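DM from R.C. (forwarded with permission)

"hey, sorry to bug you on a friday — could you get me a structure for this? deadline for the figure draft is monday and I only need the backbone to look sensible"
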Amino acid sequence: MSYDEIPSFDDSQETLQEGGYQEKAPDDGIKRKRELLREARQIMKDRNYDTSVVDDVLVQFDGVSEGNTPAEEELRRQYNEIAEKNKRRCQDRERNTEQKRILISKAQELQNSEDWKGTAAQMKELMNAWKEIGNAGPVNDLLWSEFQGARQTFFDRQRRHYEEADLLRKQSKSKKQEIIAQARSAAFSSTDWKGTHEVLEEMLSRWKQAGSAGREDDSLWSEFQSIRNDFYARRKEAMQKRESEFLERRERKSALVTDAQAYAKACDYSAPAAERMRGMSEEWKSIGFCGNEYEDRLWSQFRMAQDTYWQEKKAAGERKHREWMTKTQAAVDRRRERIGNIHQNIENLRERLNTTGNIDKQNQIYGWISENEAQIRELEEEICRMEQELAKN
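My reply, with the result:
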């Protein structure tokens, strides 16, 4: 039976039925006790009533003299029932108070947490546990105020956090939309592959630093990435085309290297060969660049073959020239020697001229002298030409 179910009695005429008979309340003591029990019941109707106040009322009940009448026995039974109920209520409240203080302590431990989702779930669990505990009496409102205060501290912080996060998401969205616009402007139809790549990489770095835009992050990223993908797809296509061109140029330049090396090895320094080597250099220039990985290496090989050819050609020319100089000088020397011999021959003829008186013989000798002098002039002219050639070289 709850305290609300404890029976009440009329002040003027209360009866007790026992063994089939009826007895009327005899004196003021019984009346006083009934008043005290009624007061105790009235107090207990308040769910937050103070159990010590009921104890004080029951102490007053004990202070009223007691007889052995059936009416007083019934009042004592009601008294015991109220006292037991009040005692249990006091024990329950002490237990509830202890349990609620534990929940308060847990809530206060969590009130400064930044695990917003996890702590919110824990706070909900604490609230459910609080509801199941029951009333703690006069301190119930104070306990609730402490408990709710800790919860409210957390939820106020959570709300501010979400508001700040929402503001940051809006700012992030704005930054990312601006980056998207800049990326579209920079990458649209651009063929500056290196420069635009560097710009997009810088934008990607800023994108990562912009923070989260929440649920719109995926769609924003998809838009930004689409711009990047379009640029890199066009760059890849251009690179493949350029690589194809580079390959064709490398093959042509490799062929020139092979030809130049063959000419350098053949030691053919004829005019057609030299003309072909000069033509290779012009052809090399007309082919164009063939890629960083191959250009320098092929050029080094080609230049080495060209240099070898022209150096050897020059050396061969110098050797030939020296041989010509030697031969020409020898020819000059031979002619000078021959001139000397002819002069001696003329002297001999002149001596014979003085020793003969035969006119025919003299005329014959004069003819020989003229022929020798003509030979000398011819040889001297040849020497002059040769020396002029030697002087030029």
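R.C.: lifesaver. Strands lie at 15-18, 21-24.
me: no worries. The first strand starts at residue 15 and ends at 18.
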